[in-house]
Amino acid sequence: MHEILLVEDSGSIAALYQTYLKDEPVSVSHVTRVDEALAYLQRRIPALILLDLNLPDQHGGSILREVHDHGWTVPIVVITGNGSVESAVEAMRLGAYDFLIKPTEKERLLTTVRNAIHFFTLNSQLKEFRKQKHKEGICGFIGASPIMQGVYHTLEQAASSTASVFVVGESGTGKELAAQALHSLSEREQQPFIAVNCAAIPKDLFESELFGHSKGAFTGASKDRLGAVRSANKGTLFLDEICEMPLDLQTKLLRFLQTGIVTPVGTDKGTQVDVRIVCATNRDPWVEVDEGNFREDLYYRLHVIPVMLPPLRQRGDDILLLARRFLKQFGREEGKSFAGFSAEAERMLKQYPWPGNVRQLQNVIRQICVMHPGGKIAKEQVPRLPSRTRAAVNSETTQPAQPTLTAMDTTPAPAPVEIPEPNEPIASLDPPSQGLNGSLAQMERNWIEQAIEQCDGNITKAAGLLDVSPSTIYRKLQSWQ
Question: Distances in Å between the alpha carbon of 223 and those of 206, 215, 226, 267, 272?
Fold first, then answer.
């Protein structure tokens, strides 16, 4: 038995619809106002909403917006006497499943209701399947977005191998966390995990730090030192910021990778070592090779299994998932109780490009937990964040421009990676070249296909033009296939 919420202010029309549906395996709950419908949805989510747009307290479109804002996966069939194309397009833009015009014939209503409930059933099954298949994180990673599912799959597949892994990602995306995940998921889990930050070691101490030295090898060498490579024997050696390694050390590292033998500074005696190499950089390694800063043969030796960590701005709802986790974690550490974020605050968090990625988000949420007593976080309580140029957001620079502090922009966010310059014109969507002929479903498809074509295949930009979520477009594309 499926539950249907009928939102209709006319008692006679509501009774007629209930008569049409009396032989269907459904139960109908009838309300006449928007506030009654919203109160109902706070208690439970039905399998279908039949919605009249002209209601006594306010326009029925507010229900569409509320369902969209909460992410509720309930199909809504709009039934109204205003049968204009504009109303149909507006309803579909807000997420309506279908659009019927009064007076609605019995068979037309029944067909639409059956199709919508079938959609709801399949969507629920798919959602449950995704819950079982998709992970919200592994080994410290937090994120359920499709792009992170690919990262988890790569880490799980690569963990059992001894092949070198090359992790590339912007600062703050979790490159060391990826290395630790590879170690934890492998058979080397009980063995040492040694991390070396190649950017933090003075050049004259680099060889000693990496390969060790014997007592008396140089001034100050008062005792033998194992070095990072030998300390990681049987385990995992993580070389962070590998492109910062001096060229002469790159030659010795390449020799070690070829032979597996370490020769400490001050001795000619080599030692066989078994380590899994994981390296990382926030630069483009090919650019470093082209500029002569990184050996090409070493790149090929290390770049066996690539792992690309996406910037936070490309991870969609993972931003909110991370923010809520951090709010709970830091609130507990501060001895405070937080009830999450308001819808406006969540919208602001999602729209900000997060040039510092997860690390920046983590620090912002910690600041919120320190500075506020608890409860629900409103948009006014979200700190002012640095505004960044397109270049600064798309790649970390060695000498970034001094940021200026501005309030978060509450206008719709641009595409995740390509942030338009201030003078760049905002694209608009022309009417479909096919015109407004045909069924509503065909019109909707024409709009979506033209938006995708106008945006050169960029789904996120197309969604921005249509003012819908990218997931809506992906779902439509799947259904057409």
Answer: 17, 4, 10, 13, 21
